[in-house]
Amino acid sequence: MKKAKILRYSILGAVLGGTMLISYLHINGGSIYPSVHAVCPLGGLENLWAWFAGQGNIQKLFSGTMTLFFFMLIFALVFGRAFCGNICPFGFLQELLGKITKRKITVPKKLDKVLRLGKYLLLAVISLMAWTTATLWISPYDPWTAFSHIWSGGELFQENGAGFIILIVVVGASIFIDRFFCKYLCPAGGLYGIIAKISPTKIKREPCINCEKCANVCPMNVEIEKESTVKSAECILCGKCAEVCPEKGSKVGVFIFGKRISTLLFVLLTVAVFFGSILVLDAVGLMQVTVPTVASVQESGEFLKIADLRGSMTIEDGAFYTGMALDAFYELMEIPRSVPADTQLKAVSQYVPGYDFHAMKASK
Ligand code: SF4
Ligand code: SF4
């Protein structure tokens, strides 16, 4: 059981570290590294709604974001919320914060029940806003986006000020309420939970000594002691209940299609399937989440349209990627020549008050 715990924490730590590194590279190295939006499966859902509404593609997203979204649906269908328990970096961050103190706030049951609906409500609002506005409406308020942008210094407050305040609330609350964001606010978790209802992967509790240790340790407060098969959409398959079971051979465990699988094997299986599938999808060209590299544009001669430009590109990049002369690009984008060419397009407003890169690009 210990091995499963060590493996799980190692993977979660690596994913959290890896996503922070990619965010850092995106902010400082530009669009050849994926943004947090491009690799958010929920963005794929928002894009889908925008498409259905005939609004076209949402800015900041790529075809790979859609692939990721559909992949996550299949993953949740097979493995329930194993992504939340074994892979999600924001979930892990909350888990780490929860270790700061053992003193926890017990949210009254009735209030807890109502608050847990928050994530479904947010999922509905995000879908509605994507349908009507074709934007990532939640982005400025998203604490994970804010956390991923901690490298951007002062810009963080300009672009993600509200998200940063919400992040502080989430961080504070996660210390005293296990997985506060997962329980009450995460729309992605809400979506996976709905799908997990029909997943063949479940926690089961065989007749046992009813010590209730499993229930006491559950970070999602699933009432596992009341069920023989956990059907709750709140179970993130973290395996903590199985870890503490004092019964010889553990009476609590993960079952797939009714067959028991050890927690260690389950962590290995889900992580291997998750990252293995992403590697395969990438190899067959279905995981495009960044703009093409300079070298590939040079080689293919296929330039981007103005609509495909990203705010993280510099003015120089913009001219290069669209195949225009630098001066012509300045003129087309109505950027005064005094703005340095290595300025990111989204940062032109720092030199030209009121300049809105996205509105300018949409007008071309
Ligand atoms: S509920 Fe959301 S934040 Fe929590 S682990 Fe799942 S996807 Fe991550
Ligand atoms: S029931 Fe077990 S596997 Fe599910 S969230 Fe609780 S501790 Fe984790």
The coarse overall form would be elongated
* Rg over C-alpha atoms, rounded to the nearest angstrom: 23 Å
Helix-strand pattern: HHHHHHHHHHHEHHEEHHHHH
Q: Count of helices?
A: 18
Main pleated-sheet profile? 3 strands, antiparallel
Bound molecules: iron/sulfur cluster
| Share of residues in strands | under 5%
Distance between the termini: 59 Å
Class computed from helices, strands and strand pairing: mainly alpha
**Count of beta strands:** 3
Strand order of the largest sheet: 1-2-3
Helix % is 40-55%
Q: Ranges with pLDDT <50 over ≥5 residues?
A: none
Q: Could you tell me the mean pLDDT?
A: 90
- How many structural domains are formed by the residues? 2
Give the secondary structure arrangement, pairings included.
Layout (H helix, E strand, L loop, with lengths): L1 H28 L11 H12 L10 H17 L2 H5 L2 H10 L10 H7 L2 H16 L9 H6 L6 H22 L3 H5 L2 H10 L4 E5 L7 H5 L22 H5 L7 E5 L2 E3 L1 H21 L10 H7 L14 H8 L3 H7 L24 H7 L1
Antiparallel strand pairs: 1-2, 2-3
The structure holds iron/sulfur cluster (SF4) (2 copies).
The site of one iron/sulfur cluster (SF4) has 9 residues, from helix 5, helix 10 and helix 11.
